[in-house]
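As agreed, record copied across for absentees:
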Amino acid sequence: MLRNAHLSQHGFSVRQAALMALCLIPTAMIGSWHTAAKVHRWPIRVIRAAFAVLLLYCGVRLFLMGLEQVQL
């Protein structure tokens, strides 16, 4: 609720936020159902490698965002 109260400061309306949520909910449900059905068939090495790549990507992004904050 608090997030919706600050939407106007960023140029969005509550209607736009609700429309985006309505678009994202079905795709998130379908994607999670599909992945949950398939994940038991994947080798554990594939899952570990994908998770490691995801963590590495997030770590690099976080590092670069922090680097932008530092004033040299």
The chain has two domains: 1-41, 42-72. The CA atoms of residues 7 and 13 lie 6 Å apart.
